[in-house]
Amino acid sequence: MQSVNRYPLLVAGVSGSGKSTLARVWARLCTAPFIEGDQFHAPASVAKMRAGVPLEDADRATWLDRLAAEMRSHPGLPAPVLACSALKRSYRERLRAGIQGLRLVLLAVSPELAGARVAQRADHYMPVTLVASQFRALEIPVDEPHTLVLEGSHPVDELILALDHWLAAS
Prior knowledge:
Layout: E1 9-12, H1 19-30, E2 34-36, H2 43-50, H3 57-72, E3 81-83, H4 89-98, E4 103-108, H5 111-120, H6 131-137, E5 147-151, H7 156-169
Parallel strand pairs: 1-3, 1-4, 2-3, 4-5
C-alpha cells in the first residue's frame, strides 16, 4: 500500500455503487482528507431528491464548483479524496478543470445491486426510486485521462488493492 495519497482522488458512481465506502476507507488508510460530496448539495437539491425528483445539470453546476473549491482547500500531501457521483463526462471535466492532477475511479455496478444497497439505507435522502435516473444519466468514462473503472460489487479490500496498484503506476 502506498503511504501517501499523491493525487486528488475522485471516487465516482451511481448511488449505491460503494463510492463513499471506498473513498472513506482509502482516505483513512492514507490519512487523507475525506470529502463526502452529498454534504455539499444545496438545500433545494436535497429537497428535490427527497421528493424523488432527479437533479438536472443546472442543479449540479454550483455543487461541482463547491466540491472543487473544497478539494483545493486541502493543499499538500496527502491529497484529498472525494466521493461524488460525477455521472456525466461534463461533470467530471468540470471537476478536472477545478482540481489539478485529479485521478478518477468509477465504480460500476448493476442497477439491481445499486437499488438493493440504496433500499437498505436508513439515513440518506436519496430514494431508491431515483436509482434508475442515475443509470440513465451515467456516462461510462471512455478515453478520459487518469481514469480507472472498477467493479463495485467486489469486496472493498480488493478494490483498495486495485486502486493502490493503479495509483502507484500513475
